[in-house]
Write the structure tokens for this entry.
Amino acid sequence: MKTAVVFRIATPPSRKRQRWSAPLTRWFSRPATIALLLLAALPAIGQESDDAAPANLTSGQLNFFETKIRPVLVEHCYACHSADAANPGGGLRLDSRTAWVNGGDSGPAIETGKPDDSLLLEALRYDTEGFQMPPRKAGGKLDDEVIADFEKWVGMGAPDPRVDEKWVPETGADDTTKQWWAFQPVQNHPAPTVKDAAWPRNDIDRFVLARLEGEGLAPVGDADPLTLLRRVSLDLTGLPPDPETAQKFLADWNAATSDAARNELYTAVVDRLLASPQFGERWGRYWLDVARYSESSGKDVNILYPQAWRYRDYVIDAFNADLPYDQFIREQVAGDLLESDSKANEARQLVATGFLALGPKSLNEQSPRQFAVDLIDEQIDTVTQSVMGLTVACARCHDHKFDPISQQQYTELAGIFLSTETRYGTGGAVNGRNAGALVELPTGTAVSYLDPLSKSEYESRQKRLEEMRREIQDAVAERRRNRDRQQDDFNLVRLTTQAAALEAELKNYNADGSVKPLAMGVADKPRTANTSGDNPLRGRAQRRRGAGFDTLTDSPLFIRGETDQPSDRVPRGVPDLFDGLESPAIPKSASGRKQFANWLTDPANPMTSRVMVNRVWHWLFGAGLVTSVDNFGNSGGTPSHPELLDYLATKFVENGWSVKTMVRGIVLSRTYRLAATHDEKSFSADPANAWLWRHSPRRLDAEAIRDSILAASGVLDLQRPEGSLIGRAGDGPLGGPRRSTINEEDVINVNSNFRSVYLSAGRNVEPEILGVFDYPDAAAVQGARSATNVPAQTLFLLNSSFAARHAKGLAERVMGETSSSATRQVATTIDRDDIPAQMEQMVWIVFNRPPTKDEVAAARKLLLRHRKDPLTGWTSVARGLLASAEFRSID
């Protein structure tokens, strides 16, 4: 039986009361003050406080509340602090903004904008003994990540759309929300006629120019050839061109005698970049952001995912092979259910379903039912938001407040995922709680990088596991005889946790010690229950209590989303959202994932093609035609060029869902090839450049900055590494406040020279060079990264050991040094005549252009200070160039 979590905001201890009462006593002893307070209160008599009414909230605020705050309130607070509670604890309700503004016995629980002055935060943080919520007996302190979400929420003003809420069964979402543009069928618009017929290079340009002409504006001129080459190289591969390539391109461009010849030259560059292996690494990383890719579970106990790298490599290979996008999505949602013509394709499709298994998980969750429902909620949110740009998971507790998705429709989808086994493969948390198995791939189809065991080693570890199981049985018996002995509790936890870790390790091996080819993924649950009691997907505690979702099943509709308040079961199904697209029937013998995957990728689904082409546009221009790239619902944005968006979506499907064809068409357009020149008239009319009168400058992402630095110093290794460092580290906790069994420094901050996409990607921890430049946290779908420009970034590039090492490498490269040569020659003094040539080489490497006179003069001034130590001088110049804004930007 689940214990109700009591979240009672009681009167704080005496020190808190004293802090409040003393100032109030002094103030209230003054008659003039009392009069002023009464006068100030008069307008409010008989009317509700302004704070009780929700303000005009942004879509970001609403999404944050619905995904981060409301679910926690429902799960941990409503039992004792809602209208449904007979006597709300401390007189406080937390089920509406009106209620918490009015407060309880101790006054308002939240001081908007002031987390440190809010009683709610004091209780959540366990700052004061005796004033700790939820109390220890009811589950204890919430995760630090959850508390941080509440701090952020209160800091932003505690946005809350609930006016006064009492749960009643809802009859369905309002169909008027289906009138939103994104729910309408895709229209195949013909390219418009434009006044300046000579300007466009393709139909994309005609749509853009028609909008500009309608606004009385004109595009700026074309980018110069070197700027264009650097831009397209970084956009398509994440790497700048090398100096020789850039210089040859400039020479060929200048030698071309016609615009057609220059266009042919540029087209050849684009085709070469699209065909290079680096394209998949660049564009695969974009999708990994969307897929919230990580190699650990995050949340309460950060357990490694040693097999996650297989999904990473699958994504990179899919983009390089130009796997049709509809097939790409079907494989990730239901690859295990699709037909395959070979064992290799079967293995690839199984690995693809790692998409569903990679998400963050609260492995310490004590309720198996709660864990199962939270897991599938995260999957529903990821699939619907990544593919369709819809926040369907907002309907978990109630009908969606903005989009035509009812709680019943959410529950239909929940049944599909509750009928799916998620095989994420960890030894679980404390006591082996919420342990998971893995998918076994066909023999000979995948390489494993774990070291095999000898047969005797395997048998020895298996014997040790059996001994530990017997020790656990003895410890349980001893604990029953000595209920008050805390040491027995500690020993039991230690034994069960160690046994679970060893069991997880042995699952990687066959009985002869050879390594199994395993991957993260999913599979349909059986039609009937497993009565053998040896389900490998569940830990011992789960087998004892059972989550109640062991077979193909329909989900109950949970009142308020609470797992201990199930209502009637709802048949598995797919939401009826779009005219002209029927919801598929789901056989009783199947989970429904295959049918759902086909529905997602049906050409009649208007969101799937629109969302992907908008993502492609965002990744090339820094902003989508719809700026809310992960939200196409009613709380999202509207397209700046709706006809162009539908044109691209139509062509995407007609061209076989080819991502490379879509990218090629966009980068060959004149719109993409515009300069970043400022134009005062256009800027005044359109400061955000939504109408595309120029190419907006933008900062490189973290991986491109790191990879460009490695390329500049001449040490970048373009070979794909085997597996991953986390895969080699094996199962176990990483990072966080608890003691790790895996040395974080050994797998995170590694001085490797391969591309950044192959670095270890644990949740809540990342290499310093990536963290400084807004690396995503992989907590949720993130199709658009934030891109800050702050002093800490420049300081890192000027002072970190990483920057120092590679600035020196760049200096040695320019000076002609080779560290492997036994007879290398090192200049002992600075030659004034050598400075321009060496400086020109360095600027070509870093900026892909020749230096200016001012840059040469500044370098000479600095170098002459280090006449007797040229390496130090050139290293200083290199560090300055690598720390510049120009280096970490695309113009």
